[in-house]
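Journal club prep — side note

Before the paper discussion, L.F. wants everyone to see what a predicted structure for a comparable chain looks like in token form. Sequence:
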Amino acid sequence: MQPAPITKYRPFPPVNLPDRQWPGRTLTRAPIWCSVDLRDGNQALAQPMSVEEKLEYFALLVRIGFKEIEIGFPSASQIEFDFCRRLIDGNLIPDDVAVQILCQAREDLIGRSFEALRGARHAIFHLYNSTSPAQRRHVFNASRQDILRIATQGTAWVRQHAAALTAAGTRVRFEYSPESFTSTELEYALEVCEAVTDTWQPTAAEPIILNLPATVEYASPNVHADQIEWMCRHLTRRDRTLVSLHTHNDRGTGVAATELALLAGADRVEGTLFGNGERTGNLDLVTTALNLYTHGIHPGLDFSNINEIREVYERTTRLEVPPRHPYAGELVFTAFSGSHQDAIKKSWAARDPARPDDPWDVLYIPIDPADIGRSYRAIIRINAQSGKGGVAYILEQEFGYSLPKAMHREIGRLINEVADTRGTELTPADVHEVFRQEYLERRAPVALQQFKTAERDSEVTCVAALTIDGVAHELTGQGNGPIDAFTRALAATALPRFEVLSYAEHSLGQGSEARAVSYIQIKTDRGQTLFGAGIDTNIELASIKAIVSALNRALAR
């Protein structure tokens, strides 16, 4: 970091708006929501979604209740084009849902985009070009007038191409984004938006959407709100304009900036589930919508099964929702602090079950978890019973076991079953004992007596001595490693066939006496998927013990 005084960075200039109105307002209704997961979120993935995954994600967004969904950039690639056609040709778009596509202000790309939209019932054409001084100087080497001409010419091309689609029965709406709006001079941003509106000629029945993006979040949320209020005041056709927001999260205040900008007069919000997007991400729609809900405003989106939504999101994007993520994180309804646990229990007990609609007032819990499909059990039980995340936390913090994430659900379920059977809260020692008995101490019906390997020409040969149901066996096998060789050796027995799905290991303790712990997930030929764990001073032997552990657990079932 640069030492003080800092000359490398400058404060963002404030907006001259001494009579700003937004600080005294209160939100009373939800905005129009537009999901950009399938475009803005998808383009930010290390491994973009397949077409089948995008179809599943689109169906999820429809179930949640989104009526405007940006599905991609069909002029950018054949995959994007084909996905748009798949939705339209497969009649997969409900009549009340508008699909939105993004396009630069170039005639060839505009024409290609309209080809992708043929046959759609309701489409939003989202046109953009960058307007900020830095973009004009470094990227386009263009004057203000040049940039304005790009915006109006692009709009004219959209009008021209839209005519045929409209004549064929498609409702075509228009959205324009002066990209990098928040770092553009306000007077110039207004000039461009007014010129685009002049070209498009919206009506009160079919308003233009002016999307004012915080493409990069440079300013604090109050400055963003001032920018939006200033624009709302100065637009000459405000009654024929939907002012839309598209905040990013570079300063970590995307949600706050959106909430204040809604107070400032915006009508519409673009974002993604859980905030996925370029760099630090887009606006988190789940958080924004449920923040409204906790203030008594129904967002018009259904997050009553947040667990399912999170599962689809994590599986298709290959991203993880952080454990402390508002509303959806594994640990947000788990209190590890004893004083918090006590306050939660007492205030929860004070609620009258006969009056479920009374104002929610449980300490430390701003929303009833049941409203979003979360479990009460995760709240009222202490650490050891606070769900899979809490159990994994105890095993790691107290005993040093860093379980693979996929194993959390399995051990969490086991701990909850034990707690339910006993009817008491479990201590960390109880949790550890259940873990040891279930994974580390299982020696029947398969018990490992000895295991040796030899390597030659990159092939490993193993010799394993073990008992199965009390009968001694000596097995040999060859493979590309000890685990593969042992798995092949077991194929000569009557034990269930299985494949190894995942492997993880780490050390327990430090120094020369440290032991290794191995976690192996298998899938049997009957479709059982489960973990085993093994500990030994030899990492190779720890992994073999983990396979035996998994096998014994499979046989016990």
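L.F.'s comment for the group: The mean pLDDT is 92. Keep this in mind when we get to the figures.
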